[in-house]
Specification:
Belongs to the HIBADH-related family. This is NAD(P)-binding domain-containing protein. Helix 8 crosses helix 9 and helix 11 runs antiparallel to helix 12. The protein has 13 helices and eight strands. The longest helix is centred in the middle third of the chain and has 27 residues. The protein has two domains: 164 residues, NAD(P)-binding Rossmann-like Domain (Rossmann fold); 119 residues, N-(1-d-carboxylethyl)-l-norvaline Dehydrogenase, domain 2 (Orthogonal Bundle). Bound molecules: ligand FVH. Ligand FVH binds next to helix 2 and helix 5.
Length: 292
């Protein structure tokens, strides 16, 4: 019991898949936990684990200084926190937001007397409470608040602080998730190519996963080229050669009866960059075309 008393008490608003997974880890680690959810039934199992359920969001906020919010979107955060007294609270918002929403929420919290940290979760619920799964949350906003609560916030999943600008956690979150969707798009195209040939997708999957892992370190070369401004530095496969290969990919897609719509936009950018006379560069020049 003494161990429990020493742990920072946490209020958690939002018991969806993510909130519930986080709640379990705080309870298991002995943190006193007060929860609230719009649909109260989702709290039932947590009560058996020792959580206190508040009848209203206001009561939950009043219960503890550290208030963690993990709701569907920024609109639901607005609805849930409306009318709560946030004066002197340490508000940590793990709801996925845009950088602009996060900055506005930080200012909104400041006007109400709260300290604010924004979070972008780089994990799915099964990774919560499983350190070896490698998940973490990007945090940005008050550095003092991060330092004060890092140990408690690190109970469900790792923590990575990315700066005082409250929008930076969301920006890092969206940047990594955007890259993930690019990977999913490429994988969808690969599976589509083999679909009609009787090749077992389960046989392609490990080959695909290993190839993506092998190619992933190329992002370090991209970063190095962006920093130096020299996109010809350490080039492995130049743009001219890669553009020359694009008809092979498009013809193969056509022969396999697969739409090129996931590949074509990227190939178009590669062609535009080549047309600017950048054949000796890496693919990094595409980034210049994307930034308006
Ligand atoms: N689950 C995932 O894979 C991803 C992983 C990366 C991070 N995301 C973000 O985490 C936030 C919460 O996601 P979640 O998985 O918990 O989402 P749901 O299971 O759908 O639960 C949503 C909770 O939000 C409550 N809620 C929704 N709308 C309202 C509203 N208008 N007023 C009050 N509460 C609202 C909902 O309540 P209920 O439906 O149970 O009554 C849940 O508590 C999210 O930002 C992800 O992008 C998860």
């Amino acid at each position: 019991a003494q161990n429990t008393v020493e742990k920072t008490p946490v209020t958690l608003l939002g018991l969806g898949a993510m909130g519930t997974a986080m709640a379990r880890t705080w309870l298991a680690a002995g943190h006193p936990l007060t929860v609230w959810n719009r649909t109260p039934a989702r709290a039932t199992a947590l009560v058996a684990g020792g959580a206190t359920v508040a009848d209203t969001a206001s009561e939950a906020v009043a219960a503890n200084t550290l208030v963690v919010v993990c709701l569907l979107d920024d609109t639901s955060v607005d609805k849930v926190l409306a009318g709560t007294d946030l004066a002197n609270k340490d508000l940590v918002n793990l709801t996925t937001s845009t950088p602009a929403q996060a900055r506005a929420r930080a200012e909104w919290a400041r006007e109400r007397g709260a300290r604010y940290l924004d979070g972008g979760i780089m994990a799915v619920p099964p990774m919560i409470g499983v350190p070896e799964a490698g998940g973490y949350v990007f945090y940005s906003g008050s550095p003092e608040l991060f330092e004060r609560h890092q140990r408690t916030l690190g109970v469900p999943v790792g923590t990575t602080y990315v700066g005082e600008d409250a929008g930076f956690a969301a920006l890092h979150d969206v940047a990594l998730l955007s890259a993930m969707y690019g990977m999913f798009a490429g994988s969808a195209h690969a599976f589509a190519l083999i679909r009609k040939e009787g090749i077992d997708p389960a046989a392609l999957a490990p080959l695909l996963a290993d190839w993506l892992v092998a190619m992933a370190p190329a992002v370090h070369r991209t970063a190095d080229q962006l920093r130096s401004g020299d996109y010809t530095k350490s080039v492995v496969s130049n743009l001219a050669m890669q553009v020359a290969g694009t008809p092979t990919f498009l013809s193969t897609a056509e022969q396999q009866g697969v739409s090129p719509e996931l590949l074509s936009p990227y190939f178009e950018l590669m062609r535009r960059r080549l047309a600017e006379g950048s054949g000796e560069e890496d693919l990094t020049g595409v980034i210049d075309l994307l930034v308006r």
